[in-house]
Amino acid sequence: MRHILDDPTGLSERAQRFLADRADRVPFDVGEGPTDAELRSTLGGLPGVDVEAALALFRQTQARYGGLRFRSVAWSFDEVVTLGPWPWDAGDYDSDDVEPMSDLLEHSVAHPHQVWLRGNGEVSYFAHDFTASNVPVFASVDALIEAEAIYQECTAWTRVRLDELVSVDAIEAGAAGLTLLSEGSGHTEQWWEQEGFRVHVWHTFAAVYKGAARSRWGVWAKDRAGEQAARTFLATIAK
Prior knowledge:
2 domains
C-alpha cells in the first residue's frame, strides 16, 4: 500500500490540497514495533478477534499513514501532530480489554488525551482521569484528515459571530436542514455547509472530558454573500 502523500486516492479534493500544501512525512520504521508473530500472539489472546483482519488493518494503516505530519488547527489539537500507528503489544492491554488497539497520533505539546485506532478502523480518544473509556470520534483515519482539511480551509474564511447567546443544541437543530459534510464529520463532531457558509458542532471534549469541558459551535463564511446567509441562518435560530 502506498503512503497517503504519494497516493491520496479516496480523499476529497479539499483534503488532497491540504496534504499537498501543509503536510510532510518524517521517518517511520515499522521494524521498531512488534513483529507479525508477536502481534498474532497478542491478538490471539483477545476474545473473538479475527487475528488476520486486525493484523492487516494495523499494517495497512502503518503503510498508508506512518510518519504523516502536519500543523493541526482542529479544536481537539491546535499543535503539530504526527501519525504514529503503533499496534499495542501484550503489555499495553489491561485484563478487561477485548478489542485490538493501536496508538495512532503523537502530540507535540502536552495533552491529557490519547488518540488510538480501534480494531474496527475507528479513531477514538481516551483521557484516563476523566472518562476511563474509549470515545469513538471518527469512523476512520481518512475522516480525521478530512475534518482537519475543513478546519484548515476555514482559516481563510470569515468567522461569523452573534452578540446573542445561542445554545449548541439550537445550532445543531438548525444545521440539520443544511448539507452535511459527511467526509469530515464523525461521531462527536459534525460539519454542515450551504450558501457559502459552514456550521461546525463539536461535542468531542464534552464526551472525552466528562464534566470538565463543554460542547462548542462555530460558523464561517466564504465571502460576503456567505456571511449574509450565515447571519440570516443565525438570526433565525436566535429568535
